[in-house]
Amino acid sequence: MDRGVENERGMMRSENYQGFQMGGLKHGREMGDNHHRRALRDINNISNDASYPSAAFKSRSNDVVPIDDKNANSYIGRRPITRRFAASLAHKSLDCSQNASSKMKPIGSERQKRNQPIQNTSCVDNCDSVDVDDFVSPNDIPLPMVEEVEEMVDFELKEVEMEDLETKLLKDIDSCDSNNPLAVVGYVDDIYSFYRETEELSCVPPTYMSNQLDINDKMRAILIDWLIEVHYKFELVEETLFLTVNIIDRFLARQSVARKKLQLVGMTAMLLACKYEEVMVPVVEDLIIISDRAYTREEILQMESLMANTLEFKMSVPTPYVFLRRFLKAAVSDRRLDLLSSYIIELCLVEYGMLKYCPSMLAAAAVYTAHCCLKGFNHWTRTSELCTRYSERELLECSRMMVDFHQKAGKGKLTGVHRKYSTYKFGCAAKSAPAIFLLGMNL
């Protein structure tokens, strides 16, 4: 047709016009052979390997198409979404989420077991092979009762409230020091978390004395009892005493020492601790005098070098004292509780058997035992439990040993701690009655 005829009819035909009339596809091909146009109804139905949709459908209908994981999606994509087919898909999704396959039998599962392929002949046939009664509708799943939902919500709310309460209790510990820059309130939690992680570095094997050939645990006790008196005479800070004992134990756990050199080890350990903790460090001559000139200056300096190299210069370790100060703060302690806790924990420094407990355990048990002494009954607050991370049951064994030491203090030969805490300077804490009831208490 020419353009003039089209204009006379009052219409403009596009270039894709193929002349569809009563003749359908045949007439269209006759009119548009030069352009090789296809019918609109055949668009999107032709695959890459066939020129016409009828040929493609005919060849595919006779092909064998097994359903497996690889082509399952393509198989489902070619099926119409009927009610039965939708029900089968919903049930398959439900069973996958519940990990239960007893009620669901996917299409072709029996054929797959026999390794027999499925003939993809008709979507209607495949849909008829599915029985909707075999599937469980998501609407049939029993929902929880209103009471159960309310109980779950209440339980979660209680947990959140408990966590908020615990956080508030721990924050209240440092509220009094919010204006004290030396208390480093913003970093104190991180500092003690680091102490918790590294306190194992300060621990020694509780049986290390078995590797020593010339000394034993009784000699260690005599040495530490003497050092407590030296520490008191030099008026050193408490951190120095605990670090001195720690250096001695760590060194003896690695190095064999002769009996006549044991006092030299103790004096040198105190010198190292003073250099780390004290502002005014005692000079070597003071140590020589306090030891009744048993050792020379050169011997002390040589031992200092040996000990520093043996310990690899690791002097910064968490001792029971750093935990004791924190736990007393959590217990809202007064002067009586402070002194009695320090007295009990210093009694443990002399005892070789207390090395099996980590520093934080010793500090927590000392505070708990002192509380029981002053109160007359077992007393352990929730705040103390959260701060120390030890329950009353976990502390009971260590606390009973401390009560035993408290009973025996001042009766044997090693009375340095008892005499120190019997003075008015330390509040006569040694005269407090021990919490004997803890020895027979069961939790």
From TrEMBL:
- Record's CDD domains? CYCLIN_AtCycB-like_rpt1 (cd20567), CYCLIN_AtCycB-like_rpt2 (cd20511)
Going by the UniProt record, its keywords in alphabetical order are: Cell cycle, Cell division, Cyclin
Among Pfam families, the record links this protein to: Cyclin_C, Cyclin_N
MF terms from GO for this chain are: cyclin-dependent protein serine/threonine kinase regulator activity
Q: InterPro entries, from UniProt?
A: Cyclin (IPR039361), Cyclin-like_dom (IPR013763), Cyclin-like_sf (IPR036915), Cyclin_A/B-like (IPR046965), Cyclin_C-dom (IPR004367), Cyclin_N (IPR006671), Cyclins_cyclin-box (IPR048258)
Q: Which SMART domains match?
A: CYCLIN, Cyclin_C
Q: What is this protein called?
A: Cyclin-B2-2
Residues of the region (Disordered) are: 97-122
- All residue ranges annotated as the Cyclin-like domain in the record: 225-309, 322-404
Query: What is the organism field in this record?
Result: Platanthera zijinensis
Organism domain of life: Eukaryota
Which family is this protein grouped under? Belongs to the cyclin family. Cyclin AB subfamily.
Do you know which PROSITE patterns this protein is assigned to? CYCLINS (PS00292)
